[in-house]
Amino acid sequence: MVREHIDALRAGMRRRGANDALSTIDRAAELDKWRRETIQAVEERKAARNAISQQVGQRKRGGEAADDLQQQSRALGEEIARLDQELAKVESQLSSILLELPNITLDQVPAGGEENNSVVRSWGTPREGARVQPHWEIGTRLGLIDFERGAKISGSGFIVFRGLGARLVRSLMNLMLDVHTGDHSYEEIWVPVVVNRTSMTGTAQLPKFEEDMYALKDEDLFLIPTAEVPLTNLYRDEILAEGDLPKSFTAYSACFRREAGAAGKDTRGLLRVHEFDKIELVRYTTPETSGEQLELLTGHAEKILQLLELPYRVVRLASGDTGFASAHTYDLESYAPGVGKWLEVSSCSNFTDFQARRANIRYKPTEGGKPRFVHTLNGSGLAFPRIIASLLEHHQQEDGSVRVPAALSKYLGAERLS
């Protein structure tokens, strides 16, 4: 992109409002030019050294002295070593710069910041907030959630679910996985919650967001912020057949985020926590079909909200509000009347080939030719904490209990939380 489509790259950064990236792009172009010139210089010197070696051999076979040529060869060797060291430094700098540049958003994504986000559709009727308790009061009163002991055990932002609350978490997991595997044909995967730096870099959590991650002391390993990381990296450094696409995976995992950049925001209840449960959806597809695959994946996440009878809206994010690695994102927001907010419960994104380039995930076209990078997509299907908040508030009853939607009650074994 820097070498062949630098104007498109600059335009993409302007659409995001990432004007500070323009000088970074210029620096990358300079380093790339210097890198290619240095590689050429190294090759020229190696060729000269090889020619001298042949001359040395000829002289020695003829019984002639070759001290001058050998001195020239040593000098060329020292020059090559010096250039190789400089080349390694430049390549490291260039790699670091390229990893800091965000993806380019697609044409249908509006320019601008959060104020340019648009609601593309909605489902259901949000409940009025009058006489509705916030979820932290309902959850505590019904003995479903123990905020105090969660904080005592682990600290602020860690939650203990108890009794019927714990069963609610397990029931949500089973409902979502059954729908995605049975109705939507995803392959269920059980993933590690610890991954290496290469995996985190492949999905673009690193190096940009390292301060938000939980790292393991004395090991270059990280607790996953989402199952997107291990799922997307399943086929890292592999080449698939085009006939294998699309591939679709779903997984439950605990997710861990320090939220270092969000200190002080939404600190009450379940709105922003450091450990949470989530069902993830990941798809690999061809470049030609990734747009329609995003619509499909988003619809799969919406189906869960419909089964839970939670009013929601689908919001297309503007370029400046779109995540670092995404080219096109829909946020699914469920309304929580007790806190009077639309809560993001899923973010469904098309990453085009951004992650695939980092993770080197390719496919061989059926008609032949060079392998191409897949397009990757993912979305939450869904994240539990804010879903639980919406459930407790939206389905709250006059007697203080909470109605359980029919699709969930068969897993929970109860029609009311009381």
Principal-axis shape equals elongated
Number of helices: 12
Beta content: 15-25%
**First-last Cα distance:** 58 Å
Q: Give the class from helix and strand content and strand pairing.
A: alpha+beta
Task: Describe what you observe in this structure.
With 418 residues, the protein is of the alpha+beta class. It folds into 2 domains: 6-100, Orthogonal Bundle (Helix Hairpins), CATH 1.10.287.40; 114-417, 2-Layer Sandwich (BirA Bifunctional Protein, domain 2), CATH 3.30.930.10. Helices cover 42% and strands 20% of the residues. The protein contains 12 helices and 17 strands. It has helices spanning 6-16, 20-61, 67-100, 135-141, 147-153, 164-183, 197-202, 228-232, 290-307, 354-359, 384-394, 406-412, and strands spanning 118-123, 145-146, 160-161, 187-188, 194-196, 221-223, 239-241, 247-256, 275-285, 312-316, 328-336, 341-350, 362-364, 372-373, 375-383, 402-403, 416-417. The strands form 5 sheets. An 8-stranded mixed beta sheet has the order 1-10-11-12-15-9-8-4. β13 (362-364) and β14 form a beta hairpin.
Could you give a short description of this structure?
Helix content is about 40%, strand content about 20%. It is α+β, with helices and mostly antiparallel strands.
